[in-house]
Design a protein that fits this description.
The chain has 210 residues and is an alpha+beta fold. The chain folds into two domains: 100 residues, 4'-phosphopantetheinyl transferase domain (Ribosomal Protein L22, Chain A, Alpha-Beta Complex), CATH 3.90.470.20; 102 residues, Alpha-Beta Complex (Ribosomal Protein L22, Chain A). The chain contains six helices and eleven strands. The strands form three sheets. The chain has a five-stranded antiparallel β-sheet with strand order 7-11-10-9-8. The chain has a four-stranded antiparallel β-sheet with strand order 1-2-6-5, sandwiched between helices. A hairpin with a 5-residue loop joins strand 3 and strand 4. The N and C termini lie far apart (34 Å).
């Protein structure tokens, strides 16, 4: 089984990343799903999605949990029954979770693709990236910003929250590996740490509420 990376963010916060290289049958071995999750997986037409779904259960096992320990609220945000915090992500060949004892956390994995250049205006101000040396650097930075906003959206989990209008990722250099971000929504401000890493053409961003 392909646990790709474990990151100890703090003694009480851990990131687990899985590289999906197994068959669906191999991933299903030893996994017991709740009836709701079993029905959910059966409704997935894509084998890739089913494999991602199962691999996340293996990541949960790495963190000491089974599928029955997980539930979702009305907004679709995952929670652990013991009160700890969890966030989940999947993108093509990689899946990930972040688990925290006390802090609110979010995670996102994205495949770095040129496609992001076409949608950048929907979540940031594209003119802010004109100083970057080449298109590859622009794609990498935009992917980090998108991933950060996805991670923060998962933490905040309120309908109506706009990536463009309400979430601000502060300026950073590609080599920094970290930044900070703010959510300004309905008269409330909250701050978050943002950390990121790149591997095999993917970007993983995880965030912790400050």
């Amino acid at each position: 089984m392909a646990l790709y990376k474990t990151i100890t963010v703090t003694p009480s916060i851990t990131v687990y990343i899985w590289k999906v290289s197994e068959t669906e049958k191999e991933l299903a071995t030893g996994i017991v799903l709740t009836p709701i999750c079993q029905q959910r997986m059966l409704g997935m037409k894509s084998e890739q999605h089913r494999k991602g779904f199962l691999s996340i259960r293996h990541l949960m096992a790495e963190a000491g949990y089974v599928d029955h320990d997980l539930y979702y609220d009305v907004n679709g945000k995952p929670h652990l029954k013991d009160g700890k915090h969890i966030s989940i992500t999947h993108s093509h060949d990689f899946t990930g979770i972040i688990v925290a004892d006390n802090d609110e956390v979010g995670i996102d994995i994205e495949l770095q693709r040129e496609k992001i250049l076409k949608i950048a205006h929907k979540f940031t101000q594209p003119q802010e990236y004109r100083t970057l040396a080449n298109a590859d650097a622009v794609i990498r930075k935009l992917t980090i910003v998108w991933g950060a906003k996805e991670a923060l959206y998962k933490i905040y989990s309120e309908k109506g929250l706009s990536f463009l209008q309400h979430i601000d990722v502060k300026e950073f250099d590609l080599q920094d590996s970290e930044s900070i971000a703010e959510i300004m929504y309905q008269g409330k401000n909250s701050s978050y740490s943002v950390d990121y890493l790149e591997f095999e053409g993917y970007t993983c961003v995880y965030s912790v509420k400050l």
